[in-house]
Design goal:
The chain is of the alpha/beta class. Helix content is about 35%, strand content about 25%. The protein is built from 9 helices and 14 strands. It has helices at about 50-60, 70-75, 105-115, 120-130, 160-170, 190-200, 215-220, 235, 250-265; strands at about 5, 30-40, 40-45, 60-65, 85-90, 95, 100, 135-140, 145-150, 175-180, 180-185, 205-210, 225-230, 245. The chain has a 5-stranded parallel beta sheet, with helices on both faces. A 4-stranded antiparallel beta sheet has the order 8-9-11-10. It has a 3-stranded antiparallel beta sheet with strand order 5-6-7, with helices on one face. A hairpin with a 2-residue loop joins strand 6 (about 95) and strand 7. Helix 1 packs parallel to helix 9 (about 250-265). The longest helix has 16 residues, at about 250-265. The two termini are about 15 Å apart.
Length: about 270
């Protein structure tokens, strides 16, 4: 039976220049491979060693990139290794099969959102009314499924984030702060549900996962085994679970370590 590996991308396998955490002396820094270009500029990286490991993983398991990114944002990433047949985008709102969204899956997700939580429009209006332009750079709606703000992190009031989280919780939504992005996501919109669907389609009996943020917690809990890096929302709160391993590495080297762990588990 195949092994399914569902991994978050940003700050788990791939890293912006700001998230690399290259704390070693310059002469000992790892060689980096650019895996994403945006507006003609390099945007995301992994180590060359990690790139080789990902190529091996793609040959040994069903590798499923699993991201909160929109389809457009995901498709500009050029990952090493064989092209994944499946990818999970928009936090589970879109299941891509050979790069194309499965309409039946998307319809199931949107029907569930309509039944189980407050509308996107209500959340959008609340964010517009309460977020201060002093620290908000952009308001964004992703795939008509969830909302996020691009913020000036050093100016963002912690108390406002806490109040928003309580307001959202009462309406069936979750708030997650990742770098300069603050996400408001419906609770029924999950990476884990999409992972289970891919496992059903592929016949995978063992599922492995990795992620760094609050939005990855359901994915890690749903997998048979999971890993989280030493940075991110989950690490900041010392979040763990019996089947989840907390890795000590931070930054781009955590991505390399995660891929080693995936390969070790697949091969054993």
């Amino acid at each position: 039976m195949p092994v399914l590996v569902a991994s978050d991308l940003d700050r788990t396998l791939i890293y912006s220049s700001a998230a690399l955490a290259l704390t070693m002396p310059d002469a000992r820094a790892p060689r980096l491979l650019c895996v994403e270009v945006h507006e003609s500029k390099p945007l995301s990286y992994m180590t060359e060693t990690a790139a080789g490991l990902l190529g091996e993983l793609g040959d040994a398991a069903v590798f499923v990139p699993t991201t909160t990114r929109t389809r457009k944002q995901y498709l500009r990433i050029n990952l090493p290794g064989p092209p994944p047949k499946y990818a999970i985008c928009a936090n589970g709102g879109h299941l891509l099969v050979d790069g194309v969204s499965d309409p039946a899956w998307h319809a199931r997700v949107t029907a569930r959102l309509a039944d189980e939580c407050a509308s996107l429009d209500e959340v959008r209006v609340h964010l517009a009314a309460t977020a201060d332009p002093v620290w908000v750079r952009k308001h964004r709606i992703a795939e008509d499924l969830f909302a996020y703000l691009v913020v000036e992190r050093e100016l963002l009031p912690e108390e406002w984030v806490k109040e928003l989280a309580v307001w959202a919780e009462n309406r069936g939504w979750t708030v997650s702060l990742q770098g300069r992005k603050l996400y408001a996501v419906p609770k029924p919109l999950t990476k884990s549900a999409a992972m289970h669907e891919v496992a059903r389609r592929t016949g995978a009996e063992l599922t492995l996962a990795a992620g760094d943020s609050l939005l990855d917690a359901d994915l890690l809990l749903a997998a048979d085994r999971g890993w989280r890096p030493g940075h991110g929302e989950l690490a900041d709160t010392d979040w763990t679970a019996p089947t989840v391993t907390a890795l000590p590495e931070r930054g781009v080297l955590a991505g390399e370590r995660t891929l080693r762990e995936f390969l070790r588990a697949v091969r054993s």
